[in-house]
Amino acid sequence: MADDSGSGTLWAGITALYAEPGVAEACIAAQDGAGADVLLLLAAALKTRHGVSLDGAGPALAAAVEPWRSEVVRPLRALRRRWRGLDGVDPLRERLKALELEAERAQFERLAPLLAGPPAEATAALLRANLSAVEPALSREHLDALAAALLRGWRPDPGG
Question: Which of 21, 78, 138, 159 is deepest in the core (most CB within 10 A)?
């Protein structure tokens, strides 16, 4: 697929961010504990690092990805998780995991064009605001854990 929108660069940033220490665990905890969309959380964090506010964008972002997420990504994830620990299914689980990641990439392709917003100072406050914008139902506990994990590898200005 041709990538003239820059979404390939954004995807690379999202996968790198997910690999940072503690980020995956905090994202999965928010996903499992609050139904949060990991891709939306990572996109919000990445846009924060680029100094972009997503204030008010959350509903449009969620609406753009919800049909794909509920019909494709979540069923693949649920099946992969149900197969955990079953004898002889590890190779199939790995293939499901690859399909799930491919489905998330396709979900991101729907999301990427909507990730524009006004410039803002890249601070810890903007990170929390962007996370809350894309997942307004996040508990304070999940928001704090995500912010802490996402800030470990990147230090915004102290005034944020």
Answer: 138
